[in-house]
Amino acid sequence: MSWNPFSRHALSKKSVVSKTAEKELEREVKRLEELDEASRKLYKDMKRCVEANNALSKVEHKIVQDLSISGLNQQEDEFRFHIEEWSHALDSLERYRMEMNSNAQRTVVEPMKKFCSIFPNLQSAIKKREQSLQEYNRCQVKVNKYQDRERTGQNVVKLDMSRKALEVARDEFLMHDTALKQDLPKLYEGRIDYFESCLEALIKSQVSYNSETFKIYSNVFSQLSNNTNWTLEECKEHNKKLLTEIKGLSLTVDN
């Protein structure tokens, strides 16, 4: 269903709504159309974010599992200890990760899904307004037609009936038109409060998760570093040096 139906009809000279008012409502509908699109993107992106968190957890556990069954893990006690500590860290983080994903689902995904469900109703309301305006224009054409005819008894009766139908159509249109003019701006302005509360809850959850992640991995790192207190750059240089030495072995040199 098209969001914006305004271009499909032309207003008559005696239309129940002015061109200025029609343009103003058209702008409101355009803003709601953009809000609908942005809301759906946020909903889909947040779902992908939750899925990505789950995928990351699975990959980390798979890496630890592969290292645990490797020959190096069976032969080196210190290496096995480090892998076990990493595994314990992942198990500890799993609870916080599940909590963060649950919060993301409750505070963003589900609220955004409910918010997006509003827009089909708005589209329906806009369509009803459009239909009632078209009906008013048709009734106005009939009134004009019988006004221009000879005032015979039959034509007078038809003119009277047409005027009554026009009045009914006018009231029907004004009901839909007034409701939209009142509700569309309220909905658009209320989006900020709705989104902010959702995002605030999500950020709080992420702060909690990442704080725990930092604590747990800092503890694992302190055990892996063997009290060397190396910086990240120093670790890189150390590994680079070791790799150079390995490449220098006669077994690794290309003949």
UniProtKB/TrEMBL annotation:
Predominant cellular place of this UniProt entry's protein: cytoplasm
Matches recorded under SMART domains: BAR (SM00721)
GO biological process: actin cortical patch localization; cell division; endocytosis; plasma membrane tubulation
Stored PROSITE patterns: BAR
Any single GO CC term annotated in Swiss-Prot or TrEMBL for this entry: cytoplasm
Record-linked InterPro entries: AH/BAR_dom_sf, BAR_dom, BIN3/RVS161-like
Coiled-coil segments on the chain, per record: 18-45
Pfam families assigned: BAR
Domain BAR: start-end pairs: 10-233
Keywords on record: Cell cycle, Cell division, Coiled coil, Cytoplasm, Cytoskeleton, Septation
Subcellular localization: Cytoplasm, Cytoskeleton
Gene Ontology molecular functions: lipid binding
Name this polypeptide is given: BAR domain-containing protein
Organism this protein belongs to: Potamilus streckersoni
